[in-house]
Amino acid sequence: ASLLLPALALLAAPALAQTTGNPVIKHKYTADPAALVSKGTVYLYAGHDEAPARQDGYVMHEWLCFSSQDMVTWTEHAVPLKVKDFAWAKDDAWASQVVERNGKFYWYAAVEHGTIPGKAIGVAVSDSPTGPFKDARGSAIVTNDMTESKIFWDDIDPTVFIDAKGQAYLYWGNTVCRYAKLKANMTELDGPIHNVSLPAFTEAPWLHEHKGWYYLSYATGFPEKLAYAMSRSPEGPWEYKGLLNELAGNSNTNHQAIIDFKGKSYFIYHNGGINTDGGSFRRSVCIDYLYYNKDGTIKRVQMTSE
Ligand code: FUB
């Protein structure tokens, strides 16, 4: 993509990740990207895919953080959060998102619960977007309630959005998309959990706003493509608008973040394309431009490898 200009060598930074094309992080496998814009910097958060070459199954113990001022050169920061930072969790640094509120940074992350069967969502907090983060509650904010067809992995893939009035929403889910309001403290649900009706919802919801429209994008089908719906409210109702992209290389999953930064919109996702060892359990984060139509709908993303 033309956004990927030749990167300058910043020799002083010991753990610098540079990019001259997709995937943007080349020295580690990264999955389930989330992005945050704060004070002119983009922070890219991702799960660390650590499965050895040719081994199937996720091996994910920690999340990674990279920052950039230009979407070209990425600086890697010290590991800001690990599963073991949630004392009640067992493993699995699955998808996550960081949001900023009143100068604090809240990291919502899916993990395997240590005592309640299935996945759960934790929230960690820091004074800095690069951490270190610590468990904000000492317990999960969402756990498996064992009522939904005994699906143990349905409480995954949190996305948090704060609207202009300061109301925060937590969306999440696998197979069924759910949402609840968050209290202003960002660490407790506020009111009931709602089910969201979306065609062929698999997982990976991401909620964002652009020019008065709210967008709920998500992974659909399996292997996954990414689709989206629009609404005039962050609570829906949601009108399905179609696909955002096609299958992304040799990864069964895909997972997106959508941000605006310095006047441009970006589609951040993962695929399995980094090299011959890449695949469903060794994924790589990529970035391409995202374009809106005049009516607010989104043009199909052109995935690039440049
Ligand atoms: O990385 C583990 C899981 O794979 C995520 O939670 C899903 O979104 C899928 O990408």
UniProtKB/TrEMBL annotation:
Signal sequence annotation? 1-17
Q: Name one Pfam family in it.
A: Glyco_hydro_43
Q: Which Gene3D superfamilies match?
A: Glycosyl hydrolase domain, family 43
GO MF terms on file? Answer: hydrolase activity
Q: Which residues cross the membrane?
A: none
User: Does the keyword section mention Iron-sulfur?
Assistant: no
The cross-references to InterPro entries, in alphabetical order and at most eight, read: Glyco_hydro_43, Glyco_hydro_beta-prop_sf, Glycosyl_Hydrlase_43_Enz
Key words, A-Z: Carbohydrate metabolism, Glycosidase, Hydrolase, Polysaccharide degradation, Signal, Xylan degradation
What family classification does the UniProt entry report for this protein?
Belongs to the glycosyl hydrolase 43 family.
Cited PANTHER family: ENDO-1,4-BETA-XYLANASE, PUTATIVE (AFU_ORTHOLOGUE AFUA_2G04480)-RELATED
The protein, known as: Glycoside hydrolase family 43 protein
**Protein's organism:** Hymenobacter aranciens
